[in-house]
Design a protein that fits this description.
Helix content is 95%, strand content 0%. It is built from two helices and no strands. The protein is mainly alpha-helical. The chain is rod-shaped, with a radius of gyration of 43 Å.
């Protein structure tokens, strides 16, 4: 007598739970909707990441250009100083050479 009663209760519980749950069609639609949105979201995130990377590259390029310009200016100044020093030495050497020849 206990087995038929147990089976009846299990059947009632199963049917009750089945009636309360979502329909399989609703679950499939929900899952397919989420799956359809996932690639679009991934593409959007990839696009945002690419924009951020591009901005970082532009910023770094501007920084490097500025540093390169400063280095070129400094090198030019150094070359001018070296040229002036050579002219001074040449000017000092010329009178000393003339004195040796006399």
């Amino acid at each position: 007598m206990q087995k038929p009663l147990t089976y009846a209760l299990l059947l009632a519980a199963t049917l009750g739970l089945a009636a309360c749950g979502d329909k399989p069609e609703d679950k499939v639609e929900s899952a397919s909707g989420s799956a359809a949105q996932a690639p679009a979201t991934a593409v959007q995130k990839a696009g945002e990441a690419a924009k951020e990377a591009g901005a970082a590259v532009e910023e770094k390029a501007a920084e490097m250009t500025e540093k390169a310009g400063a280095a070129v200016e400094e090198a030019g100044k150094t070359m001018q100083d070296a040229g002036a020093a050579m002219q001074d030495k040449a000017g000092e050497a010329a009178p000393a050479e003339e004195q040796k020849q006399q």
